[in-house]
C-alpha cells in the first residue's frame, strides 16, 4: 500500500470514525492502525477475504465523501501551517508560558 | 421559538448542512435563516404544514446526532474563547500586522 494513501486514510479515519458502523470501525482499525492483512482480518472474523476487502473499500469511499463535504482533514492541515507560524512569535513574547499554553490548547482541539 | 435554540440550530445547520438532502436544506434554510413560518414553507412547496414540521423536526434531530459524534460546534466555541485570549497579545507584539493576519486566517477556517 502506498505510504501517502495510508497516511491520508489514517487521518480520515481519525476524523470521521464516529460516523462509521462498529464493523467498519473494527476492520479499518485492524487494517490501518494495527497493520493486519486482509487475510488476517478475514480469519479473525470468520468471513471471506473478499468480504473484508469490499467492506474496507466501501468505508474508504465513505470517508472520502465525508471529507469532500466537511473538509475536516484539509482544514486541519491549513490550521497546522498557521499554528507553526504563530509558534514562531513565542520566543519574543513576554508572557511566553501563557501564549504557549493557549497554542497547545488550540492544537488539542484538532 | 426560544432564541437560544434558534441560535444553536442555526450554527448546527451551518456546520452540517453539507450532510443533508436538498429538501432538508431548503426547509431548514427557509425556517431558520429566512424566518419563514411552517405554513409559508408548506404553501411554497405545496405540501401539508405537518409534513414540513415532521421534516424539520427529523432534520433537527439529525443535526444534534452529528454534533454528538463530531462536536464541530462545541470545538468552534472552545476555539473562539482561545482566539479571544490570543488576540489580547496583539497590542504588545512587534510584528502586529503579521500576527493579526495569522489569527484572522485561523478564524476563517472555522
From TrEMBL, chains A, B:
<dbReference type="Pfam" id="PF04297">
    <property type="entry name" value="UPF0122"/>
</dbReference>
<comment type="function">
    <text>Might take part in the signal recognition particle (SRP) pathway. This is inferred from the conservation of its genetic proximity to ftsY/ffh. May be a regulatory protein.</text>
</comment>
<dbReference type="InterPro" id="IPR036388">
    <property type="entry name" value="WH-like_DNA-bd_sf"/>
</dbReference>
<keyword id="KW-0238">DNA-binding</keyword>
<dbReference type="InterPro" id="IPR013324">
    <property type="entry name" value="RNA_pol_sigma_r3/r4-like"/>
</dbReference>
<dbReference type="InterPro" id="IPR007394">
    <property type="entry name" value="UPF0122"/>
</dbReference>
<comment type="similarity">
    <text>Belongs to the UPF0122 family.</text>
</comment>
<dbReference type="InterPro" id="IPR054831">
    <property type="entry name" value="UPF0122_fam_protein"/>
</dbReference>
<protein>
    <recommendedName>
        <fullName>UPF0122 protein ACFSKK_04030</fullName>
    </recommendedName>
</protein>
<dbReference type="GO" id="GO:0003677">
    <property type="term" value="F:DNA binding"/>
</dbReference>
Amino acid at each position: 500500500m502506498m505510504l501517502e494513501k495510508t497516511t491520508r486514510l489514517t487521518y480520515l479515519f481519525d476524523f470521521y470514525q464516529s460516523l462509521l458502523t462498529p464493523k467498519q470501525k473494527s476492520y479499518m482499525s485492524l487494517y490501518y492502525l494495527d497493520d493486519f492483512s486482509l487475510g488476517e482480518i478475514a480469519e479473525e472474523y470468520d468471513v471471506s477475504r473478499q468480504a473484508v476487502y469490499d467492506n474496507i473499500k466501501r468505508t474508504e469511499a465513505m470517508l472520502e465523501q465525508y471529507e469532500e463535504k466537511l473538509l475536516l482533514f484539509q482544514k486541519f492541515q491549513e490550521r497546522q501551517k498557521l499554528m507553526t507560524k504563530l509558534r514562531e512569535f513565542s520566543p519574543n513574547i513576554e508572557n511566553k508560558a501563557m501564549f504557549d499554553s493557549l497554542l497547545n490548547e488550540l492544537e488539542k482541539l484538532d
